[in-house]
Amino acid sequence: MDETPDRFERQLQAHLEVNQKSWEALRQRGVDEDTPLQLDFEFTTPGEPETRELMAFLRQNTDYEYKGGARNGPDGEQQWLVIGTTSPMTLSPAKLDAWVTQMTHWGRDHGSAGFDGWGAQTPKSAPPPKMSLRKHLSLGRRGR
Questions:
Q1: Are 69 and 138 in contact (CB under 8 A)?
Q2: What is the C-alpha to C-alpha distance for residues 141 and 58, in angstroms, rounded to an integer?
Q3: CATH of 5-24+37-122+129-136, one of 1.20.120.1560, 1.10.3720.10, 3.40.190.170, 3.30.70.970
Q4: How far is residue 136 from each of residues 4, 72, 104, 132, 140, measured CA to CA in Å?
Q5: What is the Cα–Cα distance from 114 to 105, expressed in whole angstroms?
Q6: Secondary structure string (H, E, C) spanning 12-66
Q7: How far apart are CA 31 and CA 47, in angstroms?
Q8: What is the pTM of this model?
Q9: Domain residue spans in the chain?
């Protein structure tokens, strides 16, 4: 994994470019700056110590629900992840960019974790399916 600061800056710039399209897609679904959203997020970490470091930081600084652990990829290689959901919040394009920037920096600074992205749960969205990540991620979870 390339650990240079440039890697994190490239990730951030790519996320910020996608945010514009994502915000427009949310608007087309009826979301505006007064619509409460919960954002699902995912980080990839280099290993267990980094996963634990990021989870400890999230526990101390957020009220997010999250889990972390390893899952086996299709090639059999273990991939370490932290996945979670924010508490409900309202966003604007600028607030979304600020949140993505913050998440990217948190990953970089607390576990050398790459922020892989986000998804939104809107009031009209069906809840995401209970998928296999929960079976594979076992290091812990922040409860509300």
A1: yes
A2: 10
A3: 3.30.70.970
A4: 29, 8, 24, 7, 11
A5: 9
A6: HHHHHHHHHHHHHHHHHCCCCCCCCEEEEEEEEECCHHHHHHHHHHHHHHCCCEE
A7: 37
A8: 0.80
A9: 5-24+37-122+129-136
Instruction: Say whether 10 sits in a helix, a strand or coil.
Output: helix
pLDDT digits (tens, 9 = 90+) for 7-39: 899 999 999 999 999 999 999 989 999 999 999
Rounded-to-integer distance, Cα 68 and Cα 19, Å? 25
Q: Residue 87 gets which letter from DSSP?
A: P
How far apart CA 11 and CA 34 sit, in angstroms, is 28
Give residue for tokens 């608007």: 27
